[in-house]
Design a protein that fits this description.
There is one protein chain. This protein is α/β, with parallel strands linked by helices and 299 residues long. It has one domain: UDP-N-acetylmuramoyl-L-alanine:D-glutamate ligase. It contains 10 helices and 11 strands. It has a 9-stranded mixed beta sheet with strand order 2-1-3-4-7-8-9-10-11, with helices on both faces. A two-stranded antiparallel sheet has the order 5-6. The longest helix is centred in the C-terminal third of the chain and has 21 residues. The radius of gyration is 18 Å and the shape is globular.
């Protein structure tokens, strides 16, 4: 929609992203920053660790900032006179457990400067690598995310394994996933790669303040890494743009599905952010959505 003459375009506020940085590939902060900037947001990016590539692609050096230095830079950011301009905070992978308290203090500083800024916690800690799944961070790091960051979050975006670990509940069905999501107590919990109702499908299920909604699309074998980071960031920016829960989830799911499909079709082992960036901006992929009865969600 065109703005009336003389009325400035609405400004998209900066997003503070705190997560890992890789040299090669599109996972975590590297792809997320590109996507958010492509959508018009400035990004304040604080890396928690530097890696050459995704750990699943081979052994690589891990550079974690010394704890005093990491805390010092979070304190610098918290004292910035521009802090009130931040429109949202998003956190993901931690380099070590001690980072959580420094991050929590920075989140609280942003909230004090701009109470309307949502905080999204992507509790990156594990996945269904086997029948039962497993943590791929030290348990102390997972506990720090659970105890220090999840309680502060307006939005939490665990995958099904992470939700089960956080809540101690079974997450083998949509009903169980929504019940576990509700038990966290956050305003919005988006369960990525949740059990789907249709066969050969992937679901993203949101437990929100006005009910529960699910978005489903066809499953793609052996997708590249980084999809959880991306859907979390796209869902956040869609909410910031004023979309309702269903539209925000459906559009984010469509972009991720289309980017995966286009990347896999070209034989890539990474998400092709630069080459297929239009999928991030305006996806054409078909994603179905439906509201889930609240009684079912709380079963």
């Amino acid at each position: 929609m065109m703005q009336p003459p003389g009325v400035p375009e609405p400004q998209k506020k900066p997003i503070l992203v705190i997560t890992s940085q890789v040299v090669r590939g599109g996972i975590s902060g590297r792809g997320l920053t590109f996507a958010l900037e492509r959508l018009g947001h400035d990004v304040w990016f604080l890396p928690t660790i530097l890696l050459p590539w995704h750990p699943g692609q081979g052994k690589g050096t891990r550079i974690v900032p010394p704890a005093p230095d990491f805390q010092a830079i979070t304190e610098d950011l918290a004292a910035s006179p521009k802090l009130a301009g931040i429109g949202a905070v998003m956190t993901g992978y931690l380099g070590e457990a001690g980072q959580s308290k420094a991050i929590a203090a920075l989140v609280e500083a942003v909230k004090a400067a701009n109470p309307g800024a949502p905080y999204l916690c992507d509790p990156v800690m594990g996945d269904h690598l086997g029948d039962d799944g497993s943590l791929y961070v030290p348990e102390a790091t997972a506990q720090a995310i659970r105890d220090d960051l999840v309680p502060l979050a307006d939005i939490v975006t665990p995958n099904a394994f992470e939700l089960g670990w956080l809540t101690g509940r079974d997450v083998g069905s949509e009903t169980q996933a929504l019940a576990a999501a509700r038990s966290l107590g956050n305003e919005r919990v988006l369960v990525t790669s949740s059990p789907a109702l249709r066969r050969n499908a992937i679901a993203n299920v949101l437990a929100g303040p006005r009910g529960a909604v699910a978005a489903e699309h066809a499953a793609i074998a052996n997708p590249p890494h980084g999809t959880g980071d991306l859907i979390a960031g796209l869902f956040l920016t869609n909410l910031m743009a004023g979309l309702g829960d269903e539209d925000a989830l459906k559009r984010a799911s469509a972009s991720v599905f289309e980017l995966i499909a286009r990347s896999v079709r070209k034989g890539a082992d990474e998400l092709l952010f630069a080459e297929e960036q239009q999928s991030v901006v305006k996806a054409m992929a078909l994603v179905t959505s439906r509201w889930v009865l609240e009684s079912t969600a709380r079963a």
